[in-house]
Amino acid sequence: MTDIGYVRGELVAPKSPPHSTVGPVAWVQKNLFSTPLDTVLTILGLLFLYWAVPPIFNFAIGHAVGPYGTVEECRAIEAGACWAYIAAEMEFFIYGFYDIPEQWRPNIVFALGTLLLVPLLMPKVPFKRANAILFLFVFPIVSYFLLAGGVFGLKPMPTEKWGGLLVTLIISVVGITLSFPLGIILALGRQSKLPVIKTLCVAFIELVRAVPLITVLFMASIMLPLFMPQGTSVDKLLRALVGVTLFTSAYMAEVVRGGLQAIPRGQYEAGASLGLGYWQRMYFIILPQALKHVIPGIVNNFISLFKDTSLVYIVGMKDLLEAVKTKNDSALEWKAANSATTGYLFAAMVFWVFCFGMSRYSMYMERRLNTGHKR
Amino acid sequence: MSQVSETTVDRPVDTSHMKVSSTNVAIEVIGMHKWYSDFHVLRDINLKVMEGERIVIAGPSGSGKSTLIRCINRLEEHQEGQIIVSGTELTADLKRIDEVRREVGMVFQHFNLFPHLTILQNLTLAPIWVRGIPKAEAEATAMHYLERVKIPEQANKFPGQLSGGQQQRVAIARSLCMQPKIMLFDEPTSALDPEMVKEVLEVMISLAEEGMTMICVTHEMGFARQVANRVIFMDQGQIIEQNEPEAFFSNPQHERTKLFLSQILH
Q1: How far apart are the first and last CA of chain B?
Q2: A contact set with B (CB within 8 A)
Q3: Where are the beta strands (DSSP E) in chain A?
Q4: Is B98 close to A267, i.e. CB distance below 8 A?
Q5: In a 10 Å sphere around its CB, with 0-12 CB exposed, 13-18 middle and 19+ buried, how is residue B206 labelled?
Q6: Going edge to edge, which strands form the sheet with B213-217?
Q7: B113 touches chain A (CB under 8 A)
Q8: Are B115 and A373 in contact (CB under 8 A)?
Q9: Largest Cα–Cα distance of chain A, in whole Å?
Q10: Choosing among A267, A274, A293, which should be mutated to test the B contact, i.e. which has the most B CBs within 10 A?
Q11: DSSP 3-state of A96
Q12: Cα distances (Å, whole numbers) of residue A79 to A55, A76, A205, A328, B101
């Protein structure tokens, strides 16, 4: 029996890990060459990069004509981008047919939006409430009057003239800020115990989700005027906004519902037993947790909305992509082998920058909000 | 019945204030029935709890103990009979339900703290938004109760960073911050490691000593002996037997009670 008995005399102090498991060499060994298969995959990956990167680099930079080049240079080269074309048409890509002397108005809107949005997205900046009110309520009104004009001696500027990145951003920002709360309300409605509310929400979600966005945009275009009194016409941009918002809110509702279902019943009960009412329980307890769970899904919807804005060409709006396409097809003075390709590459890059930004921000938010679940 | 333990607290429990002198009825349940669709889960429950009374409900699992106390703050709906809490009858009227819930605190088996809020925020949420108490005052009250449950230093942590026993003490403090007249405990120690049961029972005993009206579903027979005025034994959705703890443990009357006690007391 004495073999089994054991009493530790001294506790083992912690010491640092062996050298072979830390540092860059260990990292390479562990992540790139740990098994024969890993080694093969690493080599294949490097070969792929060797095959793919140089041509892309050469097209975009190496053989390309810079923004200050001329159309003759663009016509002379074969395998290079024509950035001079983008630089020359930049105004159209950003503002569409917006009158050139009036372009300071969208510029103010861009600046104001950035000025209000950036501090709103940064967690530590004070005056969040005032900031949010300014961004959500004051900013849209100011922007509308600035852009549309017709007041304070501003030249009227019908929405038919708006275009390019301006329209893309307006539709995305409005779509995102409206479809998010609408989606939450639809998701809560779908879980409601009141049959009328529940049925309405389910019907809306299932109907809108089951048709393509193009159809929704067409319907918004054709159906909305039918509900209006004879003779009044609904603005094209407004139709697109309504269509995109309703469409995204249906998707949003389902994402949020997923989050709601992940919250244990005990959370609802604890809130109820403290005497909190339905909306208080949802606002303070359930939604903060549920939405945190579904941040990836929500941002997925935002990104997809941002890209789907390019479908508004269906109702005759010229968003960024459509503006590029218009110039590609019509700007004869810039006809060159790679002008159109460069145009699309530019559009893709702009979309990518915004979408990647949203994606990174959502990852940052997830990390930041993780504190509550720290164990 | 592996969860049953006989944890007792090593100090003499001061029962001098614990005599129920009040003649005011805190809770009255009259001929109450409840069904889960076809399943008759509570059958003809009649129960009168006076202010300051401490009641322990025992019984095998599935006997309807938890369902009964969850009916008292309407987390569950009853279909027949009456439940009157502090003079307010529970009906489908949401206003009355909220009225009752404000006066009745509840502690759950799994604590149900809000994981995204700090301990202090957990404690002040309802006082601020339900009672309309100013934030500073609510925080002062919260710190007072955190000191009572002996964890004021955890105020700014998140629930996930606390041990089970600490979380349950926070949950008790959270209920107390609403200054309830009645406290319901739904197996408050069943999800805890044995080492932590005692710290939670300590808090519950000190509450009892102050004359809080308590209904406690628990397997802690030591607690029942030390603190309860009355032990209620339930089986198959019915109250089978109720008595003072001494008589209940030493001289059970019903066959089912005898069997239950013989299985849990060694």
Answers
A1: 12
A2: 264, 266-267, 269-277, 280, 284-285, 288-289, 292, 369, 371-375
A3: 163, 318-319
A4: no
A5: middle
A6: B104-107, B182-186, B213-217, B54-58, B230-235, B238-243
A7: yes
A8: yes
A9: 102
A10: A274
A11: strand
A12: 9, 10, 48, 18, 74
d(CA A179, CA A247): 8
One digit per residue, the tens of pLDDT, for chain A of length 375 reads: 567 888 888 888 888 887 777 788 888 888 888 889 989 999 999 999 999 999 888 888 888 787 887 777 777 787 888 888 888 888 888 888 887 888 888 888 888 888 888 888 888 888 888 888 888 888 888 888 888 877 887 788 787 788 888 999 999 999 999 999 999 999 999 988 899 999 999 999 999 889 998 888 887 777 777 777 766 667 788 888 888 899 999 999 999 999 999 999 999 999 999 999 999 999 999 999 999 889 888 988 999 999 988 888 888 788 888 888 888 888 777 787 788 888 898 999 999 999 999 999 988 888 888 754 544
The two beta strands, B80-85 and B54-58, are: unpaired
Contact B114 A272 (CB under 8 A): no
Place of tokens 């209920």: B175
> Would the CB atoms of B161 and A375 count as touching at under 8 Å?
yes
Q: Are strands B54-58 and B213-217 parallel, antiparallel or unpaired?
A: parallel
Q: Flag whether residue B160 sits within 8 Å of chain A, measured between CB atoms.
A: yes
From the list A269, A275, A285, the residue facing B130 with the nearest CB is: A275
- pTM, two decimal places: 0.82
Is residue B105 within 8 A of residue B175, CB to CB? The reply is yes
**Among A294, A204, A279, residue whose Cα is nearest residue A245:** A204
* Chain A neighbors of B105, CB-CB under 8 A: 273
For the sheet containing B80-85, what is the strand order? B39-50, B25-36, B80-85, B88-89
Query: Cα separation of A178 and A242, whole Å?
Result: 10
| Nearest alpha-carbon partner for A279 in B88, B69, B175, B94 | B94
Which of helix, strand or coil describes residue A66?
coil
Helix (H, G, I), strand (E, B) or coil at A162: strand
Alpha helices in A232-319 (DSSP H): 236-261, 265-273, 278-280, 287-293, 295-308
Q: Is B175 on the interface with A (CB under 8 A)?
A: yes
Contact A255, A264 (CB under 8 A): no
Residue among B71, B74, B112 with most chain A CBs within 10 A, to mutate? B112
Three-state helix/strand/coil letters over chain B: CCCCECCCCCCCCCCHHHCCCCCCEEEEEEEEEEEECCEEEEEEEEEEEECCCEEEEECCCCCCHHHHHHHHCCCCCCCEEEEEECCEECCCCHHHHHHHHHHEEEECCCCCCCCCCCHHHHHHHHHHHCCCCCHHHHHHHHHHHHHHCCCHHHCCCCHHHCCHHHHHHHHHHHHHCCCCCEEEEECCCCCCCHHHHHHHHHHHHHHHHCCCEEEEECCEHHHHHHHCCEEEEEECCEEEEEECHHHHHHCCCCHHHHHHHHHHCC
Name which of A277, A280, A375 is nearest B160 (Cβ-Cβ): A375
**Using an 8 Å Cβ cutoff, are B155 and B120 in contact?**
yes
Three-state SS at A146: helix
ipTM metric:
0.88
Kindly state the DSSP code that residue A134 receives in the 8-state scheme. I
